[in-house]
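re the bet — no i am not wrong, look at it urself. input seq straight from the record:
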Amino acid sequence: MRSFQGAVLFVDMLGFSALTRGKLKLTESEYAPWKIKPEGNFPHQLLAAQILLAFRKVLMRTGRRFKSVKLAQLSDCAFLWSEDLGAVTDAGRFLMHEAIGTGLLCRGGLAYGDIHEPNKIDRSIGAFIVGDAVTRAATYETLGKGMRVFTDADTAAEILLKRPSEDRKSTRLNSSHN
């Protein structure tokens, strides 16, 4: 295992569980952009599959643009991580912007701290990480409402320490935990 200090962004798509459980009453106009007919068997599941493909494309564009950031998708969620805190915050901004441009609504949690990842791994079924920063990032995502990235005061301070040119307006981070 390789252990290091780094940043983790956990991103989750909003409303996906309600969609896959059939709890959303969608109209034909909501299916139309995705080229899905609302009549028939399980149109909400077909829509969910199209949304996952769109999310995957956003993640792939993010990965191509930010080479030092690693990514892993798990259904409607993703982890982005790197030793480079600035690269993760930039990749997060890019991902959120690309997602909304595609019609996807996301919320995130960002944490800086311990990350542990395998030295060598067969990536054919994906990558994985563990560590305090991973757990905190996933927890912070659940603490708020709306399309935001939630973090703690220590992570926000680390961003400002490593990137003094950043300010609270440009980072668009909401401190949710002290």
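see?? Strands lie at 2-13, 70-74, 77-82, 106-117, 149-152, 173-177. told u. also Helices lie at 16-20, 28-31, 43-65, 85-102, 132-141, 153-162, 168-171. so pay up
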